[in-house]
Amino acid sequence: MDEFLKDAEPFLDYSDLKILKAMSSDETVSKSIIKIFEDPEYAGKYLLMLKERPKAIFIVAKLSERISKFFEDKEAELIHNLFLKAIRMIKDTTDTTLKQSLFMLIKEAIDRRMKEGDYEGSASLISEFYNFGFKNEFKKILFIASELAEKGDFERALKILNSLFPSEIVNELKTQLHFEWGKKLFSLKNYSSAEVQLREAIKLSKNDETTADAKVLLTEVLERQRKYEQAYRELRDIIARNPVEEIKISRKMAKLLINWGEDIKSEDPDQAIDKLNEAYQISLRVGDSELGNLAFKKAKIILNSKKEVSG
């Protein structure tokens, strides 16, 4: 145990070392602690030997956290898992002093990961131990995710949010980020990827206004991909959900139908005329004479072309 204490001394506080020294008289406890760090992968059974000694388990947790930054890959994961196992064993303690020590240790772990840029690791700890009182850390990680998205790293931002426990604010922020990502991809003319992000925003959204905004942009994305039928259905759905927006969305529908008709006029002139006629009727209904005249003129051109061909 003396050699173990010497190795552990740089990573523990004086009070922890005193407790460890006091425990060295209990051979089962001291040997169990040594075994835990000899091979963390099989530490579970030796942690159980410490079940009646919560302070010993706490020291295992603290030592695991403080040495973990010196390991990489699989070894680092093993040490981190040991930290989590130890914390989980004593997190429901009624000892107020130990509870406060646990709070400080977990906060230390969260802050270190934030400082090192391991935001996903921080988010995971905040999420699991939120009931300890990590409200400020929770807000901070949401702000970090928002900043990353603002810089264009939407994927990382969403990965961080997915590491947090489900909540209304997390869901709202994820919705917003998917929407913003969709807008960014649309501006880059990456329409297929924009469609994916906008559909995800719509699926997550609990806000009618956000849903409508995402659906409106989705219709433009679909139109760019010549998915006119889908775009048309989305616009009809927006009108059904938001009757007050009927005139505004109806104009968009008329424009869509005009573009649809123009696009298919050579392959299916009859259907093109049907689309333009519908656009004309919608334009009349909403009082947009300019759109109505445009639809009428385009339909007339197609009709004249048909007559020339048949004549």
What this model shows, in words?
With 311 residues, this protein is mainly α. The protein has 3 domains: 1-90; 166-241, Alpha Horseshoe (Serine Threonine Protein Phosphatase 5, Tetratricopeptide repeat); 250-311, no CATH class. It has 17 helices and no strands. The protein has helices at 2-8, 14-23, 27-38, 44-48, 54-68, 73-90, 96-116, 119-128, 135-150, 154-162, 168-187, 191-204, 208-224, 228-241, 246-264, 269-286, 289-310. Helix 7 packs antiparallel against helix 8, helix 11 runs antiparallel to helix 12 (191-204) and helix 11 packs parallel to helix 13. The longest helix is centred in the C-terminal third of the chain and has 22 residues, at 289-310.
Summing up helix and strand content along with how strands pair, one would put the structural category as: mainly alpha
> How many DSSP H or I helices?
17
Indicate the proportion of strand residues.
under 5%
The CA-CA distance between the termini, in Å, is 104 Å
Number of strands: 0
Principal-axis shape equals rod-shaped
Number of domains: 3
Please trace the helix and strand order, writing H or E for each element: HHHHHHHHHHHHHHHHH
How would a textbook summarize the main sheet?
none
How helix-rich are the residues, as a percent range?
A: over 70%
* Overall residue-averaged pLDDT value: 93
- Spans with pLDDT under 50 lasting ≥5 residues? none
Q: What is the radius of gyration computed over CA atoms, rounded to a whole number of angstroms?
A: 31 Å
